[in-house]
Design goal:
Layout: H1 2-12, H2 33-37, H3 50-64, H4 74-85, H5 90-108
């Protein structure tokens, strides 16, 4: 439901000041609240679709395995500085990813 809301809110801001030029219009007999409030549920069921279940498991995992940072040390500051000051163009990043994938596949052959 959150993703739907985000997509909808972005599209409706494409209209003019009074919202009349919006990029999304809802019409017809199939536009019902229940249809949109159950986007992640299987038809005629209360069971979530597999991606929804996986997302819930992932979110729960993150909640239980997240550590709060109480004090930022020098290593953390250096990493943060590097992440804010480093830039890679698409080609450099693409080559680096391909090299990593190749190295991983080469190591599996042993």
């Amino acid at each position: 439901m959150g993703l739907f809301y985000t997509a909808l809110s972005r599209a409706t801001t494409l209209g003019n000041k009074d919202g009349q030029g919006s990029a999304i219009y809802f019409r017809g007999s199939h536009f019902k609240r229940d249809r949109f409030s159950r986007l992640g549920k299987k038809k005629h069921s209360d069971e979530d679709y597999a991606p929804i279940k996986k997302r819930e498991l992932w979110v729960n995992y993150l909640k239980h395995h997240t550590q709060k940072i109480t004090e930022v040390n020098e290593d953390m500051k250096a990493i943060l500085h590097w992440s804010e000051s480093s830039r890679f163009d698409y080609e450099t990043l693409h080559k680096r990813i391909n090299s990593y994938v190749k190295a991983k596949s080469d190591n599996r052959s042993f």
